[in-house]
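Annotators were shown the component list below and the corresponding predicted structure, then asked to write short factual statements about the assembly.
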Amino acid sequence: MKTRPYPAWISRLFIFLVAALSFTGLTQMPLAKRYALTTIPGMAWTGDFYLVHKIHYVLGAMLLFLAALAAVNWLKGWGRTLRLTGLGAARVAVVGGLLLSGLLRVYRNLPGVTLDPAYILTIEWAHLILFMVLGVLALVALMRGVSAYAVRK
Amino acid sequence: MAEKKHRTGTVSRRGFLKALGVGSAGALVPAAPALAAQERVPAPSDGELATLLDLSKCIGCGACVEACRESNADKFPEPVKPFSEMLPSRRAKPEDWSDLRDVDDRLTPYNWLFLQNAQVEYRGESFDINIPRRCMHCQNPPCANMCPFGAANKQVNGLTRISPNLCMGGAKCRTVCPWHIPQRQSGVGLYRHLMPRLAGNGVMYKCDRCYQLLDKGELPACIAVCPENVQTIGPRAEIVARAKALAEEMNGFVYGLEENGGTNTLYVSPVPFGLIDQAIDKDSGPGADKKLRAADKAKALGPGRPPMGPVKDVMADETNLATAAFIAPVAGIAAGVLGLGSKLLNTGEDGHED
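Structure shown to annotators:
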């Protein structure tokens, strides 16, 4: 198993954010009520589309902050001592695509903006497909025991 | 008490057709990539069209309801029966209007426009108000913003459409719509070919403002057929100005300027919409279900029978949170530049395994 040369809390925060974003993203689909998730004590909120949407926004903002922080530090110095693994690089690209398409969705939802429906469709499906790709890549990395994005050179 | 029917100066339909021509010219131009994002400034040049309904003119003849059905008949669903049994069957029940195609006292997948009636007393006078109800075509439509598949979208010419080829019929659009306008028909659409038992439940239907006619520069059917010229359509800025002028002229009220942050369907009435909202509980049109009338009045309105009360901007919180989403990466960059990262790395737990 590869070691992670960066603080554990960054990994944990990243995993938490991605997991929570995955959950709140999936519940953008009308699943919670149909599949009785809302009947589980403490989970009634999952049936409130607006609440789940807002939580997704907040978590998305947190992940954007973390990703920007990591990118700057990579350029500033982490890149000299660390090396992205193959699966790490693939996941960085997918997460980047998810963040970009997510931001475009936020932009599209502003009251003063109307994008052409063809672009909307591209953005939405890119977001959905990238999410699924990230899931597959994460699973492969986990099964191979190489879940760290970067290792020491 | 004398019944009063307000009549305001009629505005030439030809004049509006001319205005529509100006507005639709912009709407018909395919959006070039560079122009994809258009500010929704209500100006004639932006091509966003709005409709105005002068409720003082509507006699409730139903011509618009009939014309809507004829104009959109080829879009109506033809479900395949029997429906696949969905799971869990207790929670995922089919919604079937295919044997109730003649229902015209509420919105259904086969009836995208219906008439509400409100008997209202206001300032010592009795008013008989008829209200053609259909999609409000919001300026920032939650049905489109919240659709997880991009099946519902607002077009650059200001109308909101649901693509029957993409819609899975989850009915989220109906839930998040403040007026619960879209209606579901099961047994049709994409879900049948993907996971008919587990995902989806049909297709959602609602007014698409006769886009097939608008695309040709023609008036939507409900507007063209109206013998009383109740409706007018044109560039939003002009329609808003007309609505305000008309309301001032009749000492009346406008619905749709503030509701849900602004809609592209504006109603002008000689009586307050709060009174109309209370009154339409009592009677939802000529064919209203008698049992329903006798039932709890609050329940008479709901999916299929939209209310007319005040509606807050349901996407306002998201608009505020959007600022946080746009600032977040900038803040992350700033934090990185200011040295937060190197500090983190130095205090890192080398050799941490996960």
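Statements collected:
1. Chain A has a mean pLDDT of 93.
2. Chain A touches chain B through 62 residues (CB under 8 Å).
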